[in-house]
Design brief:
The chain is an alpha/beta fold. It has one domain: 4-Layer Sandwich (Metallo-beta-lactamase, Chain A). Helices cover about 35% and strands about 25% of the residues. The chain is built from 10 helices and 14 strands. A 7-stranded mixed beta sheet has the order 1-2-3-4-5-6-9. The chain has a 5-stranded mixed beta sheet with strand order 10-11-12-13-14, covered by helices on one side. The chain has a two-stranded antiparallel ribbon with strand order 7-8. Helix 6 runs antiparallel to helix 7.
Length: about 300
C-alpha cells in the first residue's frame, strides 16, 4: 500500500511556490469576523492556513501565522489593524503552513502557545525547511504549552483554547470565543475541500470526525467558523463537511470489509461523485481515497 508523507511534501512544495510568487499579486485579505476579531486569508496564491487576529486595549492575540515566506506580509497586515506588537501567537497544530511566523513573532516580543505535542514534535523531528530538517530554534518552539485546555482573558472576552485529540494531528487545538460566537477551527475544517488527515503525525479519521462533531456541538446557526483553509463558514458548512467525510469513510470501510484490495478500490473510484465539489490540488480524490484505505486497513 502506498504511503504519503504529507507534511514534508506539502511544506517543500508550498515553500517553492511561495518563494517564486512573492511579487505575483498575492495579498492577505482581511475580513472582520466580529468587533476586534479579524480573519486573514491568502488571496491570489497560497500563503498558508487562515489566521485570526484579536486586537484590543489589553493585547494582541494571533491564531496561527501562515508560511514563513509570507511573514513580512503578515506583519504588514497586522499593522493595518493595530500599532501594537503581537503579545501571544497560538499554534493550532505543527504544520509549517500554520507556524511559519513563530520565530519572527517571538523576536518581536510574542509568546508562542501550543499543545504539548507540538513542542515535543519540533524537538524530536526538527523544523522543516526547503532543504530538509534542522533543529528548531528557541523562537520557533512554543514557550507555553498545555495539555487539555487554557483560556485567555483579554480585550473583554475569553478565548478558550481546546485540545482535540488525534484527529488532524495529535497536537491540534481549536479556539472558542464564546461571547462572540466565533470558533477558529484550524485544520479540523477544510471548507469545501477534502480534508488532510495526517496519519503520520498522530491523526486519525475517527478522531477527525469526532473533532468536527465537537466543533458542531459548540456552534449554532449564528456561529462564525474560521476554517483552517477555505472561506469563512457557518455551522451548515461544517455539517456538510462532516457528512461527506463520514459517508466517504463508510464507503471505503465497506469495500475493505468485502475483501476488496487497495488497487481494486482505487480502480472503482468510490468517491467519484464527490470529486467536482471537494477535489483540490493537495488532497485530490485519489489522495482522499488512499487516506481512507490506509485508515481502515490499520
Amino acid at each position: 500500500m502506498r504511503r504519503f508523507v504529507w507534511p514534508t511534501f506539502a511544506i517543500l512544495l508550498c515553500s517553492s511556490l511561495c518563494a517564486s510568487a512573492q511579487n505575483d499579486g498575492i495579498t492577505l485579505k482581511a475580513t472582520e469576523v466580529a468587533e476586534g476579531l479579524i480573519m486573514l486569508q491568502g488571496e491570489g496564491g497560497f500563503t498558508g492556513g487562515n489566521i485570526s487576529l484579536s486586537v484590543g486595549d489589553d493585547g494582541v492575540i494571533l491564531i496561527d501565522g501562515g508560511l514563513e515566506n509570507y511573514t513580512q506580509m503578515l506583519l504588514d497586515a497586522i499593522a493595518v489593524h493595530t500599532d501594537n506588537p503581537v503579545d501571544y501567537v497560538i499554534n493550532t497544530h505543527v504544520h509549517g503552513d500554520h507556524i511559519g511566523a513563530n520565530a519572527a513573532l517571538f523576536l518581536s516580543g510574542a509568546t508562542v502557545v501550543a499543545h504539548d505535542n507540538i513542542r515535543t514534535r519540533l524537538l524530536d523531528s526538527g523544523w522543516q525547511t526547503r532543504d530538509g530538517k534542522r533543529p528548531a530554534t528557541v523562537g520557533e518552539l512554543p514557550q507555553i504549552t498545555f495539555s487539555d485546555a487554557m483560556t485567555f482573558h483579554l480585550n473583554g472576552r475569553t478565548a478558550k483554547v481546546i485540545h482535540l485529540a488525534s484527529g488532524h494531528t495529535d497536537g491540534d487545538a481549536i479556539v472558542h470565543y464564546a461571547e462572540l460566537n466565533v470558533l477558529h477551527a484550524g485544520d479540523y475544517f477544510f471548507n469545501g475541500l477534502f480534508p488532510f488527515v495526517d496519519l503520520d503525525s498522530g491523526g486519525s479519521v475517527a478522531g477527525f470526525i469526532a473533532g468536527m462533531e465537537k466543533i458542531l456541538s459548540l456552534s449554532d446557526e449564528h456561529t462564525k467558523i474560521v476554517p483552517g483553509h477555505g472561506p469563512l463558514a457557518g455551522k451548515a458548512d461544517l455539517q456538510r463537511a462532516v457528512d461527506m467525510l463520514k459517508d466517504a469513510d463508510t464507503r471505503i470501510a465497506a469495500l475493505i470489509e468485502n475483501g476488496r484490495t487497495a488497487e481494486e478500490i482505487r480502480a472503482e473510484n468510490p468517491l467519484a461523485d464527490y470529486h467536482d465539489d471537494w477535489n483540490w490540488s493537495f488532497i485530490t480524490t485519489e489522495v482522499m481515497t488512499d487516506t481512507l484505505i490506509r485508515s481502515n486497513s490499520n
